[in-house]
UniProtKB/TrEMBL annotation:
UniProt-recorded name of the protein: AraC family transcriptional regulator
Gene3D superfamilies, A to Z: Homeodomain-like
SMART domains named among the record's database cross-references: HTH_ARAC
Pfam families: HTH_18
Domain HTH araC/xylS-type: 724-822
Matching PANTHER family: ARAC-FAMILY TRANSCRIPTIONAL REGULATOR (PTHR43280), HTH-TYPE TRANSCRIPTIONAL ACTIVATOR RHAS (PTHR43280:SF28)
InterPro entries hit by this protein: Homeodomain-like_sf, HTH_AraC
Annotated source species: Eisenbergiella massiliensis
């Protein structure tokens, strides 16, 4: 409440006006206490006819009283503090709940990583089982298994060569580097690259743990189905490494004739099982439920490892808190229904407690910092605003001596102009946003159709694209075609046609629809579906055909329509668009104008190799990205051979199309990389002579890999020169205290994010680690010279001795002084 005391004397000509002003001020939320004695005197003398005048204490007539409204400041400060401190207090009260959330987040993260590991391993072993089935069914391998024995190893060498080529064609991109087939009767081993016929060569080829080759032969005489052998130090083909084994029996009509042995690199599986929590204090292991045996162990960083008792794992709980030898821990487990494996991770409770304390400490420091900054800001803002309100009130209650003065309103004019400017700016900003919103929305949809990289559900929803929790269809339209090749269409017409097509979907499909222009004469619409929608819904096909016929009859324009399979997630939209693009591109010869991917997929007279996928394949090869190249070819093989099983004729066309892609890649290199054309033509000639589908794909894969290797070699040569320049720069500037990723990236003309990735590729470690290692090496050499740690820190680019000492102890395991005493003082 703001209290103002005003004394009004008898000679006040504006008493009534003041009362009105004060009455108006009270309606604005301010209370005014006026001296009752002065007002009574003024009222008693109204009837005397004398003109009352204003008495201004301490000043002449017409002067403005210098009133300071301190309570204005107090009320502003209290209001701002109440608004600011309320959420702050709520955060402080809920600070203790962070322990529960941190534990749940850590356990959820570990569980998520384990689920990802399980899915990857299950997929890899599905591929291994597929290979096992095909090898078992291969005529050459069955012939070797049944016709050869240890006494009579006479067989056509071509049979073995064909078997090896078949095995090489099915090399798997997993943790298996080289697998082999052991034939019992022949006592022989065949790998994709080698043949071992005699016992002495067999002994030098393979050894599992401490087991001799004879004992291993005895083991392989059993019947195995998806059998795991625990992790051991395994020697295969001269290379020793810890591996676990996956064994499948080679079964023929006459019984078990051997085994297929897949040695799996333990370290590759362990790297998958490790994550930001497990790799420090926790440990994990892989349990084979069928044999009740631990087949893989991932100990903690300090070597700690302990199995969880069976009675604890037997309760079926995914996450539980237990006590192991007096030490509390979180046990996270997940079961694989496909392989019968159990993934177990153990996270000590004390590690979680440390993380909780760190999080609470960070939050507390943040609250303290916000509190001080907030209170300082409140005092500053309250002082500025209170001062302006003080001036406005002074202006409103200024009284003249002779007559009532008009208010000039400088402050009000300032406020009015500021508000007008703010409104104008906001209006312009809103208009700009409104103009740019369709453009941004279209770009988001276009990126979503081409894979959705960098697009989140929230960013889509910000622009009115709601896909969360929905099933979706991608419907693509192509305006024009063979029947309308002579019809001249203008840009404006195609825009109108697209809008008509978009509106024509409204009565056909309920739900939201988002249209995106993909070309001058084509567009795609992402449609959300009702829960009961099943493709194709009754009448759905007829309505789309009617839409196409209506366009032809009314406009003389042919419209082809392609409908994808149903997408259950936003990440599937890119592949769905590839499907529609493929149908619109290759489906024109049927004389149909509406295509459903379900019908198209069942047909064996078309192959799947859309232009978008070919572009990704070309980009992968021309940049030397072998992994991406394998991923694109695997998708082509998966869809055409495993899923659709297209006809041999279409397979021939597909291989020819892939050969054309080879020439596109060579053209895109633009003589930037030296490619031996004779080698290319030699491999193409071998490809044309192959009849087996797997071998043809293997030849294509080898051809693309050859080009990738040549590109990588050229890039490596260029990278080596670049690495030398960067290394020289760091050697010259490591002692600068402002040396950092941003500075070196700017000096070399790169963005910091790109330079960070480039540095990791060139040097095998990140920039900060490399710089710190170099500085520590210089610290060691300067310690030998007897310089003080302060001087050394200054000469090696550290801002303080504390920072240098911390980095030194982290790398060397001791302080600089301890290192000096241990290495240099003792020698002296």
């Amino acid at each position: 409440m703001l209290s103002i005391s005003i004394r009004v004397c008898y000679n006040n000509p504006a008493a009534c006006h003041m009362r009105d002003a004060l009455g108006n001020a009270q309606t604005a939320g301010m209370d005014f206490y006026i001296s009752t004695g002065a007002l009574m005197a003024a009222d008693m003398r109204k009837g005397s006819g004398r003109k009352p005048q204003c008495a201004v204490p301490g000043g002449a007539h017409g002067q403005v009283p210098q009133m300071k409204y301190r309570k204005v400041y107090i009320r502003l400060i209290i209001t701002y503090l109440a608004i600011f401190l309320l959420p702050l207090i709520i955060n402080i009260v809920t600070l203790e709940n962070i322990s529960v959330s941190t534990r749940e987040n850590i356990c959820a993260s570990v569980y998520s990583n384990m689920s990802h590991t399980m899915d990857m391993l299950d997929n890899n072993f599905r591929e291994i089982n597929t290979i096992t089935a095909r090898l078992t069914a291969n005529s050459n391998i069955r012939y070797i298994a049944t016709q050869m024995d240890e006494e009579d190893k006479k067989i056509e060498i071509s049979k073995i060569q064909y078997a090896q080529e078949y095995m090489a064609a099915m090399q798997i991109q997993t943790f298996v580097e080289e697998y082999y087939v052991y034939f019992q009767d022949a006592d022989m081993v065949i790998t994709p690259d080698s043949v071992y016929l005699y016992k002495d060569t067999l002994r030098s080829f393979f050894r599992y743990g401490d087991m001799s080759w004879e004992d291993w032969q005895l083991m392989l005489k059993g019947h195995y189905s998806e059998q795991f052998f625990p992790e051991r130090m395994t020697m295969q083909n001269g290379k020793q490494e810890e591996r676990l084994l996956f064994v499948q029996s080679l079964v023929t009509d006459s019984g078990v004739k051997g085994c297929l042995v897949f040695p799996i690199r333990s370290e590759g599986v362990k790297n998958l099982m490790r994550d930001a929590y497990i790799s420090q204090d926790g440990w994990a292991y892989l349990l084979d439920k069928k044999e009740d045996e631990t087949i893989l162990r991932v100990p903690a960083a300090d070597g700690t490892f302990e199995l969880v008792p069976e009675e604890i794992l037997g309760n079926g709980r995914a996450v539980q808190e237990v006590t192991l030898n007096g030490r509390k821990a979180e046990v996270i487990r997940i079961d694989s229904d496909y392989l019968g494996l159990t993934y177990v991770s153990v996270l000590p409770k004390d590690y979680i407690t440390v993380q909780i304390n760190k999080d609470q400490q960070k939050l507390f420091l943040l609250i303290v910092a916000v509190l001080f900054v907030g209170i300082g800001s409140i005092l500053l803002v309250s002082w500025k605003r209170g001062k302006r309100i003080d001036g406005i009130l002074q202006m409103l209650f200024s009284l003249g001596s002779e007559a009532e003065e008009e208010l000039k309103g400088d402050e009000m004019e300032y406020i009015s102009n500021s508000l007008k400017q703010l409104i104008d700016n906001n209006a312009g900003l809103q208009e700009s946003i409104i103009r740019q919103k369709p453009v941004t929305r279209g770009l988001l949809l276009e990126r979503l159709l081409h894979g959705g990289e960098g697009v989140s559900l929230q960013s889509l929803e910000d622009y009115g694209i709601c896909l969360r929790g929905n099933r979706m269809l991608v419907i693509a339209f192509l305006i024009g075609g063979p029947d309308t090749s002579e019809v001249e269409m203008y840009t404006g017409e195609t825009v109108v046609y697209k809008q008509v097509l978009h509106q024509g979907l409204e009565p056909i499909l309920s739900g939201d629809k988002y249209m995106c222009d993909t070309d001058m004469d084509s567009c795609a619409v992402i449609c959300t579906l009702e829960d009961d929608f099943q493709q194709p819904r009754a009448g759905f096909l007829e309505k789309l055909e009617h839409m196409s016929e209506t366009f032809w009859e009314e406009y003389g324009v042919r419209v082809r329509i392609a409908v994808s399979s149903i997408c259950k997630d936003m990440t599937e939209i890119g592949k769905a668009y590839d499907q529609t693009y493929d149908m619109l591109t290759y489906g024109a010869g049927e004389g149909k104008y509406v295509f459903f991917y379900g019908d198209y997929q069942d047909s064996k007279e078309y192959y799947y190799f859309p232009v978008t996928l070919e572009e990704r394949l070309v980009n992968a090869v021309r940049t030397g990205n072998v992994e991406a190249m394998h991923a694109q070819l695997s998708e082509v093989y998966q869809v055409n051979v495993l899923t659709r099983n297209i006809s041999p004729t279409m397979m021939h066309f597909l291989v020819n199309d892939l050969q054309c892609t080879v020439f596109k890649v060579l053209h895109s290199l633009n003589n930037r990389v030296e490619i031996e054309e004779e080698e290319i033509y030699r491999q193409l000639e071998q490809l044309s002579r192959e009849n087996d589908i797997l071998l043809r794909f293997n030849r294509i894969n080898s051809l693309f890999k050859y080009i990738c290797d040549m590109v990588k070699a050229a890039n490596k040569e260029s990278s080596s020169r670049q690495a030398e320049e960067i290394e020289e720069y760091i050697h010259a500037h490591y002692c600068d205290s402002d040396m950092g990723l941003t500075k070196i990236a700017d000096d070399f003309g790169y963005a910091s994010t790109y330079f960070s990735k480039l540095f990791k590729e060139l040097f095998g470690e990140n920039f900060a680690t490399y710089l710190e290692r170099m500085r520590i090496e210089q610290v060691c050499s300067l310690l030998k010279k007897g310089l003080t740690v302060e001087k050394i820190a200054e000469q090696t680019g550290y801002n303080s001795v504390y920072v240098m000492r911390t980095a030194f102890k982290r790398i060397k395991g001791m302080t600089p002084n301890e290192f000096r005493k241990l290495n240099y003082d003792r020698k002296e």
